[in-house]
């Protein structure tokens, strides 16, 4: 048997295996440790809600009327457009009270200036009181970049979304009105 040497092209397997076994194994763990000495395994941080409306945005009486009138006028315009396509929709808007009849259901929306709210009486979702809320405003967002909408503070629902679902009317958010 020839003697193993690099010159004759025969290399012993034992030398190759020996070199492979000298490679170190790497291990990692996913356990998190606290920088505090008394906390071995800290609990994961609770996720924070992104931007749930909790408080109505402060408005002067003039600002309230400007936003509410703009919203209700926009809604009346969209409902009248829908009425042209479907004569089964009845729309009556007078003295700040909007009454919409659709398939034997009557919806009533009106301004409540003392509370600075828009109230909705719906046969589908019940009565709700909506406050003007500007969201996406704070240190995590661009200054002046907040978006306002009429929000029911008890459950966070949007008047715009409720009207879209129940009346099939899309009312854009009042972002044309200065904040």
TrEMBL record:
* Sample GO molecular function, one term: ferroxidase activity
Where does it sit, as one GO cellular component term? mitochondrion
Its EC top class is oxidoreductase
Q: What's in the keyword line of the UniProt record? A: Ion transport, Iron, Iron storage, Iron transport, Mitochondrion, Oxidoreductase, Transit peptide, Transport
Basic and acidic residues bias locations: 43-52
Q: Which GO terms describe its biological process?
A: intracellular iron ion homeostasis; iron ion transport; iron-sulfur cluster assembly
Give a Pfam family name.
Frataxin_Cyay
The record's listing under Gene3D superfamilies reads: Frataxin/CyaY
For region Disordered, the annotated ranges are 27-52
The family annotation for this protein states: Belongs to the frataxin family.
Q: What is this protein called?
A: ferroxidase
Source species of the chain: Leptosphaeria maculans (strain JN3 / isolate v23.1.3 / race Av1-4-5-6-7-8)
What is the taxonomic lineage of the source species? Eukaryota, Fungi, Dikarya, Ascomycota, Pezizomycotina
């Amino acid at each position: 048997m020839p003697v193993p040497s690099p010159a004759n092209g025969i290399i012993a397997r034992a030398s190759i295996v020996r070199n492979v076994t000298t490679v170190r194994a790497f291990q990692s763990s996913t356990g998190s440790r606290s920088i505090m000495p008394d906390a071995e395994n800290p609990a994961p941080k609770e996720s924070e809600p992104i931007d749930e409306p909790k408080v109505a945005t402060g408005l002067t009486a003039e600002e309230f009327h400007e936003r509410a009138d703009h919203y209700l006028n926009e809604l009346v315009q969209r409902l009248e457009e829908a009425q042209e396509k479907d004569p089964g929709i009845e729309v009556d808007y007078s003295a700040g009270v909007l009454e919409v009849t659709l398939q034997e259901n009557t919806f009533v929306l009106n301004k409540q200036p003392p509370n600075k709210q828009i109230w909705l009486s719906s046969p589908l979702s019940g009565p709700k009181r909506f406050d003007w809320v500007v969201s996406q405003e704070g240190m995590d967002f661009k200054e002046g970049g907040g978006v306002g909408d009429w929000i029911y503070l008890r459950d966070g629902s949007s008047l715009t979304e409720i009207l879209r679902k129940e009346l099939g009317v899309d009312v854009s958010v009042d972002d044309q009105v200065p904040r």
